[in-house]
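pasting for ref
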Amino acid sequence: MTDPTKDPRFLRDPYPTYAAMRSACPVHPLPAGSGGRPGYLVTGYAEAREALADPRLSKDTARFFAGAESRRRPHPAVAHTMLASDPPHHTRLRALVARAFTTGSVERLRPFITRTTDRLLDQWTTEGPVDFVAGLAAPLPVAVICELLGVPQAERPDVQRWSARLFAAGDPAVVDTASHAVAAYTAGLVARRRQDPGDSLLDQLITACDADDDVSEQDLVSLAVLLLVAGHETTTNALGNALLALLTAPGELDRVRRTPQDIPAALDELLRYDSAVSTATFRFTTEPVTLGGADLPAGAPVLVALGAANRDPARFPAPDRLDLDRTATAHLAFGHGIHRCVGAPLAKAELEIALRAVLARFPGISLAVPADRLEWRRTRLVRGLESLPVMV
């Protein structure tokens, strides 16, 4: 399989390619890539769910790449986050951040999300196209996660810029440079919060990490970096994908416009239909594994295509149709198992509040350009729009 980010047709609509691969075999062999070893791409729903929960598939990238020659020089705090670790280390780190994303914690953030959404929509113009990504989908999640972590207002544009570069495809040097910039910034922010503590999530993390001898300073910085970057990048894409899905399904758009109270129930189907995380982060087999009829040897890289799994007709009939009556709570847009996205409740709150506000203020919202002219981000990990021009 060649690099799909080089093909605009795949970026625009990867699902026919995934369907063809799944019909041939839900666990598709890939040529040698990471570490010089052949890998596997999982496109079937049942197989993806199984792989995501299988402890024999490790996420310890440091272990996999140990001793390998590489020109890459990412910062360790970015390369070896909680997402790239296994229990018990992963269990310990996840427990430190999970409390910030409980239902109660997210409820307390809703007024801030609502105020920020309203402030951003106040700046929209009705005299020409508005870019939904630049005008709401990107700045809203940045503001929320920066508020949560206590990032000063003036420093938030830098965080957004570094984050975008971390997800740049095809230019490893740009990614590595951004990783050092965001890690250095975060380490500095941690130092400042130690000198002048407050009550942000970062302050709570610093206190908890300092009290745990098994959690290093690099662990603390990597947790903060992960929250800072993953905490908004995926939500930005989810917002754009969700609005585009509605704008290209007029019947479903009319429905949520007439009954906005249906938006919370519609979120799972919107997340399933066009997942913001296209491919789950890197895994590899620690021993021989049989998955979807394929025999995977030990040490094989495994990529789980969440977007493909969410379009598997064996689990979701007529998967290429947006159906807000569908029960889609079993979607894999947030992953599955011990690595399921810890920030899912916050992401859903942002989606609900933002979509409800946009449709209430601008009931006549429509695409400003044909859908096939929209430009998608050139990255394999996440799926999102560069921009989404709309008329309001």
